[in-house]
Protein backbone atom coordinates (compact mmCIF):
# COMPACT_ATOMS: atom_id res chain seq x y z
CA UNK A 1 0.00 0.00 0.00
CA UNK A 2 1.34 3.35 -1.01
CA UNK A 3 -0.27 6.57 0.16
CA UNK A 4 0.83 9.86 -1.34
CA UNK A 5 -0.06 12.48 1.28
CA UNK A 6 -0.34 16.12 0.29
CA UNK A 7 -0.74 18.56 3.13
CA UNK A 8 -2.48 21.68 1.82
CA UNK A 9 -3.70 23.07 5.16
CA UNK A 10 -2.28 24.59 8.33
CA UNK A 11 -4.86 23.60 10.97
CA UNK A 12 -3.11 20.47 12.24
CA UNK A 13 0.41 19.07 12.09
CA UNK A 14 0.72 15.89 10.09
CA UNK A 15 2.93 13.88 12.41
CA UNK A 16 4.51 10.56 11.47
CA UNK A 17 2.03 8.78 13.80
CA UNK A 18 -0.90 10.13 11.81
CA UNK A 19 0.70 9.08 8.52
CA UNK A 20 1.14 5.56 9.93
CA UNK A 21 -2.50 5.51 11.06
CA UNK A 22 -3.69 6.49 7.57
CA UNK A 23 -1.68 3.63 6.04
CA UNK A 24 -2.85 1.10 8.66
CA UNK A 25 -6.47 2.17 8.16
CA UNK A 26 -6.23 1.87 4.37
CA UNK A 27 -4.66 -1.59 4.62
CA UNK A 28 -7.28 -2.69 7.16
CA UNK A 29 -10.05 -1.69 4.73
CA UNK A 30 -8.44 -3.64 1.90
CA UNK A 31 -7.97 -6.70 4.11
CA UNK A 32 -11.56 -6.44 5.35
CA UNK A 33 -12.71 -6.83 1.74
CA UNK A 34 -10.06 -9.46 0.89
CA UNK A 35 -8.39 -7.16 -1.63
CA UNK A 36 -4.66 -7.17 -2.35
CA UNK A 37 -2.63 -4.54 -0.56
CA UNK A 38 -0.61 -3.35 -3.53
CA UNK A 39 -2.74 -0.29 -4.29
CA UNK A 40 -1.94 3.38 -4.40
CA UNK A 41 -4.11 6.18 -3.09
CA UNK A 42 -3.66 9.91 -3.01
CA UNK A 43 -4.68 11.68 0.20
CA UNK A 44 -4.97 15.46 0.31
CA UNK A 45 -5.52 17.26 3.60
CA UNK A 46 -7.11 20.63 2.93
CA UNK A 47 -9.02 23.48 4.58
CA UNK A 48 -12.75 24.22 4.25
CA UNK A 49 -12.22 26.75 1.45
CA UNK A 50 -10.43 24.19 -0.73
CA UNK A 51 -12.89 21.35 -0.12
CA UNK A 52 -15.82 23.69 -0.78
CA UNK A 53 -14.27 24.61 -4.13
CA UNK A 54 -13.83 20.91 -5.02
CA UNK A 55 -17.33 20.01 -3.78
CA UNK A 56 -18.82 22.72 -5.99
CA UNK A 57 -16.69 21.77 -8.99
CA UNK A 58 -17.25 18.00 -8.89
CA UNK A 59 -20.60 17.59 -7.12
CA UNK A 60 -22.35 20.89 -7.77
CA UNK A 61 -22.69 21.51 -4.02
CA UNK A 62 -21.44 24.90 -2.84
CA UNK A 63 -20.51 24.13 0.75
CA UNK A 64 -17.61 22.64 2.69
CA UNK A 65 -17.90 18.92 3.35
CA UNK A 66 -15.75 16.65 5.48
CA UNK A 67 -14.39 14.25 2.85
CA UNK A 68 -14.52 13.67 -0.89
CA UNK A 69 -13.72 10.41 -2.65
CA UNK A 70 -12.66 10.05 -6.27
CA UNK A 71 -12.57 6.33 -7.16
CA UNK A 72 -10.47 5.12 -10.07
CA UNK A 73 -11.54 1.46 -9.97
CA UNK A 74 -14.26 0.35 -12.35
CA UNK A 75 -16.58 -2.57 -11.71
CA UNK A 76 -18.03 -5.31 -13.88
CA UNK A 77 -21.06 -6.11 -11.75
CA UNK A 78 -19.56 -6.76 -8.31
CA UNK A 79 -16.08 -7.54 -9.65
CA UNK A 80 -13.51 -4.73 -9.58
CA UNK A 81 -11.41 -4.17 -12.70
CA UNK A 82 -7.93 -2.84 -11.98
CA UNK A 83 -5.53 -1.02 -14.25
CA UNK A 84 -1.84 -1.96 -14.26
CA UNK A 85 -0.95 0.82 -11.83
CA UNK A 86 -3.55 -0.32 -9.28
CA UNK A 87 -4.44 3.27 -8.43
CA UNK A 88 -7.46 3.04 -6.14
CA UNK A 89 -8.33 6.73 -6.17
CA UNK A 90 -8.07 10.08 -4.44
CA UNK A 91 -9.28 11.11 -0.99
CA UNK A 92 -9.62 14.72 0.13
CA UNK A 93 -10.20 15.45 3.82
CA UNK A 94 -10.99 18.84 5.32
CA UNK A 95 -9.03 19.04 8.55
CA UNK A 96 -11.20 21.98 9.63
CA UNK A 97 -14.33 19.81 9.31
CA UNK A 98 -12.54 16.95 11.09
CA UNK A 99 -11.75 19.26 14.01
CA UNK A 100 -15.36 20.51 14.15
CA UNK A 101 -16.82 16.99 13.97
CA UNK A 102 -14.47 15.54 16.57
CA UNK A 103 -15.76 18.18 19.00
CA UNK A 104 -19.38 17.70 17.94
CA UNK A 105 -19.23 13.90 18.34
CA UNK A 106 -17.02 14.17 21.44
CA UNK A 107 -14.22 11.92 20.30
CA UNK A 108 -10.59 12.48 19.39
CA UNK A 109 -9.39 14.18 16.25
CA UNK A 110 -7.36 11.05 15.45
CA UNK A 111 -10.54 8.96 15.60
CA UNK A 112 -12.36 11.41 13.30
CA UNK A 113 -9.53 11.51 10.77
CA UNK A 114 -9.34 7.70 10.86
CA UNK A 115 -13.09 7.44 10.32
CA UNK A 116 -13.01 9.85 7.36
CA UNK A 117 -10.20 7.91 5.70
CA UNK A 118 -11.96 4.57 6.30
CA UNK A 119 -15.28 5.95 5.06
CA UNK A 120 -13.61 7.20 1.90
CA UNK A 121 -11.70 3.94 1.36
CA UNK A 122 -14.99 2.05 1.23
CA UNK A 123 -16.25 4.57 -1.33
CA UNK A 124 -13.11 3.92 -3.39
CA UNK A 125 -13.89 0.19 -3.20
CA UNK A 126 -17.37 0.67 -4.61
CA UNK A 127 -19.59 1.15 -1.57
CA UNK A 128 -22.04 4.01 -1.16
CA UNK A 129 -24.84 5.14 1.15
CA UNK A 130 -27.68 5.98 -1.22
CA UNK A 131 -30.43 4.26 0.80
CA UNK A 132 -30.97 2.75 4.27
CA UNK A 133 -29.70 -0.72 3.33
CA UNK A 134 -26.52 0.48 1.60
CA UNK A 135 -25.87 2.88 4.49
CA UNK A 136 -26.24 0.04 7.01
CA UNK A 137 -23.79 -2.16 5.06
CA UNK A 138 -21.23 0.63 4.78
CA UNK A 139 -21.54 1.62 8.46
CA UNK A 140 -21.01 -2.00 9.59
CA UNK A 141 -17.84 -2.21 7.52
CA UNK A 142 -16.57 1.11 8.85
CA UNK A 143 -17.28 0.16 12.46
CA UNK A 144 -15.54 -3.22 12.03
CA UNK A 145 -12.35 -1.54 10.79
CA UNK A 146 -12.52 1.26 13.38
CA UNK A 147 -12.85 -1.31 16.17
CA UNK A 148 -10.03 -3.41 14.75
CA UNK A 149 -7.77 -0.35 14.86
CA UNK A 150 -8.94 0.62 18.36
CA UNK A 151 -10.57 3.82 17.11
CA UNK A 152 -13.75 3.57 19.13
CA UNK A 153 -15.83 6.55 20.12
CA UNK A 154 -14.48 7.81 23.43
What features would you describe in this structure?
The strands form 2 sheets. A 4-stranded mixed sheet has the order 1-2-6-3. Strands 4-5 form a two-stranded antiparallel sheet. The chain is 47% helix and 21% strand. The chain is an alpha/beta fold. The chain has a single domain, classed as Metalloproteases ("zincins"), catalytic domain (Collagenase (Catalytic Domain), 3-Layer(aba) Sandwich). The model has no long low-confidence stretch (mean pLDDT 94). Helix 1 packs parallel to helix 4 (109-124), helix 3 (95-104) packs across helix 4 (109-124) and helix 4 (109-124) packs across helix 5. It is globular, with a radius of gyration of 15 Å. It contains 5 helices and 6 strands, in the order βαβαββββααα. It has helices at residues 16-32, 48-59, 95-104, 109-124, 132-148, and strands at 2-7, 40-46, 67-71, 74-76, 79-81, 87-94.
Amino acid sequence: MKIAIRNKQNHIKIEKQLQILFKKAAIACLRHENWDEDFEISLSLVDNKEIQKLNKMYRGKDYATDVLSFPLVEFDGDMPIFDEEKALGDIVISTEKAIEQSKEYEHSLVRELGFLLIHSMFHLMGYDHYDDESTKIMREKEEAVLNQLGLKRE
